[in-house]
Structures are given as C-alpha cells and as structure tokens.
Amino acid sequence: MIPTDFEDVAQQVATGRLARQSIQGLLQEAHDRYRENREGLQAHYIPALGHADPEHFALSMAHVGGSVFEVGDCGHEFSLQSISKMFVFALAVQHLGRDEVRERIGVNNTGLPFNSVMAIELNEGRPMNAMVNAGAIATTELVPGEGPEDKWVAIHRGLSDFAGRELQLDAEVYASESAANERNKALGRLLKSYGRILGDPEAAVDVYTRQCSLRITTRDLAVMGATLADGGVNPVTGVRVLDADTCRDTLAAVAASGLYERSGDWMFEIGIPAKSGVSGGIVAVAPGKGALGAFSPRLDSAGNSVRGQLAVGHLSRTLGLNLFASAPERWSVPER
Length: 336
Fold this sequence. Notes:
This protein is of the alpha+beta class. Helices cover 43% and strands 9% of the residues. It contains 14 helices and seven strands.
C-alpha cells in the first residue's frame, strides 16, 4: 500500500527551510488521521513479532537543528529489523568506499521480495542491493573486523552512534529469529557458493540477525535518519558518524530499494528515501531537513507498515519533504 489519499491536503514544496513551529501539530494530525486504520497483519513468521500489540502507533521527527518531536507510543521499544540494512550499508561504504561496495553488493532494485532466492540466481550470485536480505547478509562481511565478533562490535557501536545512545539487544527477538531463519541461512550458503561471502555464511547470518534484533524507538529512528540528513553529524549529540559523501550514497541506495518492490511507487507518490522493517518501523529522510520515524506493527503484503506509510506520506506532503517538488521560479517577462 503506497499512500495516495492526499486530495484534501495542501501541496507543499521541498525547497526552503522546514517550518519547525508546525511539526508537533502536524505529527498529531497524522497520528489522529490514521490511528483507526487496522489494515494489515503482523509478521507472524517470526513468533516474537507476531505477538506484538497491533494497536501501538508512534511518530517522531528529528530536525537537523537537534529538535525532536513525538506523538503516540513513543516510549515503546521494538526491534530494528531491516531498517538496520541502510545504516550497516553506510558503515561499509565509509570503510571500503562506494566503488567497492557497489561492485560487490550492487545498488539496483531486484523487483522481487526481500527474501528472494531467485534474485541471486538471476544475477549470477550478485545480491543487487543491500536493502534485501541477501545483500544485507553480504554487507555484514564488509564491515571492519577480523571475525564475526569484531564485526558485530563495529556494527553495534556504529548503529548506537547513529541513535546517539547505546542500543540494547532484544534477546527474545534474537532467539526467535535465530530459530526461524532457515531461509536466511540458505541465502548465506548460496552467496558463499558464488563467492560473495568469503567467511562462514552462518556466522554472517548470525551477525545480521543480531543487528536486526537491536531495540529502538521512533525517536531513535528519527535521530538515526536525521544523522544522514545532516551530512553524517548526529544532530542531538553533535558527533560525526559518517562523511557527507557516504550519506549521499546511502540515501541514493535507499531511495532505489528501501521499500523493496514497492520502492518505485513510494518515490513516485512520497518522494523521500525511506526504509522499512517487519517489526513495523519506517524511517524516512529529508536531506538537509531531518527525518521521520514511524512505528505500527500491521504490515502490507510487501512487509511495510500500513499506518507508517500513510502517516509518513501525509507528513511528506504537509511538511514539504518531497525531493521532486520545487517552488516555481518567480519572474516576469519585461515589457517591450
């Protein structure tokens, strides 16, 4: 489901500064507008996620100036899941450079589901992008470290730097996913057979599972996204996490594939890079302005939060975040 119900919302433009004084009210408006929507289902194929309370709904926005705005169940923690992919991709690009990561992983959309085996086979073992499971598993190997534990330490530290606080592992989610990730293990072994993973594929899958199991809130998501929006500087802590060029490359990759096979529709309708996770989280980034974090566990058939998409779409429209909407140039033809 890509939001299209904007007929009664005033069109805004992406140029210019964000009007911070209106953010809190617009967040509340979006929350009120969609909180009664009960379309979609939780991710029952991961037992711990299937037990989530489907009524939880939270929205946050972090401004590049350091302000954070929140409504709804903002204190509720949930697991990072696939949203971790974009930030681990950024860590890999920062470490190895854009060209090597692009060559080894890729930046093109597969057009297939996030856990597709066929996508690997159709592309001679290349994962195609880091936002699908195969690409994310391969990307964990590109993070600096002598072995899986060193890589996990680097990922944990890096994701915590994005959030501006030390993120904690959700042991229940980690155990639940580890017991239900045979498909990811198969993807790892297939990548190994093509030489895309050089080490132990099950160790790579385990690191990937751990990064997905970190607990976050919508505030964390908004701050993490705003770090990319601010050229790599965490706007709350003031710590530089990445170079600005890495942020640019990361957002480009996310724009192409962040919502899986629905990414083209998302950019056409909403116009900002966004990444979803099957726990119900979404982070959407407006470069130079800030980022939105949304959470609601009910998902559409592609694995994207239904309420989250609707709310982010509404806010993109009302806050003027769409990258492709620009103010008309004010000029006049001189009289002859």
